[in-house]
């Protein structure tokens, strides 16, 4: 087997993957199409460009985003190192000067003798040798077509994601489990509303503030998957006859059919997360919190993912990829970054670290490196490969992805601190065992 790995895409995932390979002595050909071609969102010639916000979210390790970064640091993340070097004041968040950050990552990649950066579009995935596809949510058209050919299935080009809440934050005194007409067991959690509650919710939903889409996101976003607020604007009863229809349901608290119902469906096998069925939305995040919390069972809901509708090329990864980020059927072909169905700068970088380590292990004949589900990186890598997830949509770091601590801790802050301590200890042990 050739000792050179092809990495396609010099963004968050590609740079991390290339450096993990290089430091294990594996030679890398890193293809980046900029500056010859730019996606509609990329503007700079540098590698690892931030296309939007300059924040890498919370810094403290008792938060999901902070824990993710701390785990990545243990595995030698170039993105976390460069982010700390180029940080700007941002309260509790880790935010960066975007130009200095990208310049620092570019310098680190270019200084690595095992990496050759090739500034060309890669239009096809090499069918021989080990390759990592890290071409991002705006992968070039030719490459996207080749990915679809290789995977035997079309890619998803838009997120149409409904929000997700943690199971423990649902008020079960105001919700009941039941499937419509009692078919399918207790698969759904129903959040009922009476007429007054619905009318207030409806009024706020249709008047809430929406996100302004980029021009390149406007075409096709709504095909076959309409945001709940757009459907609601068609008439006061439209969603009561659509995703919020109460038919076939009886609220045990009243013995009657509710006026309207939001159904929640399990998002992961562990049952710690639920999505709001049919609630794909384009509302601003703060508005989602405000409006959806008007549903009584969600009054104190903790949202771990907001609904989004934007351009985003990603694979239906469950069944197609393993938690080691290679194709189930083709262990030489790896995917990394947003294209795998992780969501966010650092989540993409984290998947690049894992894909890079595993691609190196493949070349060097070493065993796979899969972190335990108690770690944020391990939980995300399992999420993208979890075949029990029905409507697969991208996922960012969330405490709700981690299994509960061994002992019950009621206070949320203390519970998150315990989860973070356990995760970091586990990553340390796994990393040491893999190196040793
Ligand atoms: C409009 C928009 C706004 C976003 N805002 C945010 C945000 O605020 N916060 C956040 O956390 N995440 C945001 N994201 C998600 C963000 O893109 C990812 O978090 C992150 O950049 C993904 O990392 P990646 O390595 O997978 O892809 P990227 O960082 O996009 O890197 C992919 C690289 O591959 C190159 N490439 C593509 N095709 C080819 C090819 N055929 N040959 C060679 N090179 C190729 C591209 O030029 C690019 O440099 C946003 C995404 C979009 C599209």
Explain the layout of strands and helices.
Layout: E1 4-8, H1 12-23, E2 27-31, E3 55-58, H2 64-74, H3 78-85, E4 87-88, E5 93-96, H4 98-110, E6 115-118, E7 131-133, H5 141-151, E8 156-161, E9 164-166, E10 176-177, E11 188-193, H6 195-207, H7 215-218, H8 228-232, E12 260-266, E13 273-276, H9 285-292, E14 303-305, E15 308-314, E16 333-335, H10 345-364, H11 376-383, H12 412-435
Parallel strand pairs: 1-2, 1-7, 2-6, 7-16
Antiparallel strand pairs: 3-5, 4-5, 8-15, 9-13, 9-14, 10-11, 11-12, 12-13
Helix pairs in contact: 1-10, 2-10, 2-12, 3-4
The protein binds flavin-adenine dinucleotide.
Flavin-adenine dinucleotide (FAD) binds next to helix 1 and helix 10.
């Amino acid at each position: 087997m050739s000792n050179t790995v092809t990495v396609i895409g010099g963004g968050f995932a590609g740079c991390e993957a290339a450096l993990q390979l290089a430091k294990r002595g594996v030679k890398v050909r890193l293809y980046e199409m900029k500056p010859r071609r730019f996606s509609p969102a990329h503007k700079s010639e540098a590698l690892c460009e931030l296309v939007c916000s300059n924040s890498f979210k919370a810094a403290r390790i008792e938060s999901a985003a902070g824990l993710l970064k701390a785990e990545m640091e243990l595995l030698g993340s170039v993105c976390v190192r460069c982010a700390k070097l180029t940080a700007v004041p941002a309260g509790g968040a880790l935010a960066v000067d975007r130009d200095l950050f990208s310049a620092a990552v570019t310098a680190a990649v270019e200084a690595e003798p095992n990496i050759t950066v090739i500034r060309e579009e890669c239009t096809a995935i090499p069918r021989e040798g080990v390759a990592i596809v890290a071409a991002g949510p705006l992968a070039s058209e030719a490459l996207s077509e080749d990915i679809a050919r290789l995977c035997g299935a079309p890619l998803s080009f838009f997120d149409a994601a409904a929000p997700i809440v943690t199971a423990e934050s649902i008020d079960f005194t105001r919700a009941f489990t039941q499937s419509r007409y009692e078919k399918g067991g207790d698969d759904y959690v129903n959040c009922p509303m009476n007429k007054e509650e619905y009318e207030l919710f409806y009024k706020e939903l249709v008047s809430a503030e929406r996100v302004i889409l980029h021009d390149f996101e406007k075409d096709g976003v709504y095909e076959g998957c309409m945001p709940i607020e757009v459907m609601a604007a068609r008439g006061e009863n439209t969603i009561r006859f659509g995703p919020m229809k109460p038919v076939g349901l009886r609220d045990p608290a009243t013995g009657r059919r509710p006026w309207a119902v939001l159904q929640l469906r399990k998002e992961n096998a562990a049952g710690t997360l639920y999505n709001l069925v049919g609630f794909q939305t384009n509302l601003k995040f703060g508005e989602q919190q405000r409006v959806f919390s008007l549903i009584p069972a969600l009054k104190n809901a903790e949202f771990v993912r907001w609904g989004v509708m934007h351009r985003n090329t990603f694979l239906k990864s469950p069944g197609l990829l393993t938690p080691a980020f290679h194709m189930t059927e083709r262990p030489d072909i790896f995917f990394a970054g947003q294209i795998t169905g992780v969501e966010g700068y650092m989540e993409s970088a984290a998947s690049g670290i894992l894909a890079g380590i595993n691609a190196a292990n493949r070349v060097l004949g070493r065993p796979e490196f899969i972190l335990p589900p108690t770690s944020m990186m391990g939980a995300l890598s399992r999420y993208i490969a979890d075949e029990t997830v029905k409507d697969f949509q991208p996922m960012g770091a969330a405490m709700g992805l981690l299994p509960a601590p061994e002992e019950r801790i009621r206070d949320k802050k203390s519970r998150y601190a315990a989860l973070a301590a356990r995760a970091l200890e586990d990553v340390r042990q796994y990393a040491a065992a893999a190196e040793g």
